[in-house]
User: Fold these one by one.
Assistant:
Number 1:
Amino acid sequence: MSIPSLRLKKDQERRLLAGHCWIFSNEVDTRATALKAFDPGQPVQVLSHRGRWLGQGYVNPNSLICARILTRRRKQPLSPTFWLERIRTALELRERLYAHPFYRLIFGESDGLPGLTVDRYGDLLAVQITTAGMERVRVEVLTALEHVLRPKAIVLRNDTQVRELEGLPQGVETVLGEAPDDLELQEAGTRFVVSVLSGQKTGWFYDQAENRMRLPRFGAPSRVLDLCSYVGAWGVQAAVAGAEEVVCVDSSPTALERVGENADRNGVAARARGIQGDAFDVLRALRDQQERFDLVILDPPAFVKRRKDTNEGTQAYERLNRLGLELVEPGGLIVTSSCSFHIDRDTFLRIVQKAARRCGRSLQLLEAGGQGPDHPIHPAIPETGYLKTFFLRVLPEL
């Protein structure tokens, strides 16, 4: 079957030749290949202005990122074998890294499968499809996952707003077996119950697992504040590591109920409690009550989801960190994170330092972390390296 061509404007192939896989709509020579002539998700071969073959992928004329390359091997058809090979390659890495089957199995572009995310919870797979191209081959991809992993259940968590940008409907669907809403996973010996069907994202934030496991090396703090706690991944582990009191803050009462269940499951219910409310409001209230903590953990959702949100998001990060720093006992620690790609590591550190100066604190950067190796970074695609986590000691102004 002949695959139609998508031709680029002059000199627009440089980023692709360097290894990136995205093509933006303003990079396409629409006189040579009219974008609107393509169907969303249609397979295409990508050519340079002079006709050089660059790769094969899929197109969506209705999206700013109008095409993504899947393979640069000209004789590699996008057949069932292709999906099997990519999934097996991804699985090989995770099985080398992890003793137990709880991890991100597929991380989109970094695993050569742009538009596809798969989290593994033992015998259950939580799958998220975010592009029209991957939606078009959904049956083939799910069949390949079933063949390679032999899961008992597969859940489609296609309730993300990113799908709107691709003109795709949102929803949650169990496409194989029966998926319990509650299932247990273990992280660093701590047991958690998560909700794969109704929890945030795909139910758990595997990207912070490596950073959470760093906590014990800094000792057992007396009082811990875990902001934007979700189901208590940071806070419950801090209590298990010996913290005397942990306060988890989240806007979701359902998440805080789960914090209590997870604390009880690990025998630390007496040392963990929740506060429901807006993060900024709770921080101000705790400051006014002159509360102090030996460890403050700030792990908010992305404040900068689009480049145009950078200024507003930067101010939000600075405000959050200033309020958090005001609650840290002298000599205590703050663990602060940003999952906004548009805020790079150095910029985020400057934001935190500015927040410290504004509240009369000095900082010592003890350790810096990123996403775990089940979220590998593609060297040519900076967008795949999004997570920054700093472990800082907080002192009075020096």
Note: The chain has eleven helices and 19 strands.
Number 2:
Amino acid sequence: MEPLASKSRPESPLEVKETVVLGGGCFWCTEAVFKMLKGVISVEPGYAGGEARTATYEQVSRGDTGHVEVAKIEYDPNRLAFEELLGVFFAAHDPTTLNRQGNDVGPQYASVIFYTTESQQKKAENYIAALNKRYGNRIVTKITPFKEFFPAENYHRNYYEAHKDAPYCELVIAPKLEKVEEKFSGLVREDT
């Protein structure tokens, strides 16, 4: 089976493209989850949110750049609603733990939504408000305007597809993908 990244669809005149940048722990997980979804045009792992003028894996891993591991997601809102993206995002990671996802600990693993439109901001705020009612104001996900994205090094791209047999992929990423497939089966591409 070809990696999903190589199956990019050509843009049609009717296709609309919107971008959101999400941090939900390790970007290997976030990338793999969102590549599964219908209406997602592209997913690119990288770094965002910090004040440092550069970002490499080594720099960000130290936890002192202010950058977060993220996935830049381009999607067609006519095929995948922003609220559906949020549903998958919040189901695929724990938004109640500050700067931590499982064994991945540090500010680079923060839960954050970098919005690119006012509509995304408002929808994210409403979504989190509803979750906080359900979970007692425990959601720590930040909502912040998107400023700059630094692409991850090539060896981080399509990580799950290239390393499915690696322990991290089997123990951490695969269960997240299974959870998303079960809970959001109508949103998942048939070729996953």
Note: The radius of gyration is 16 Å.
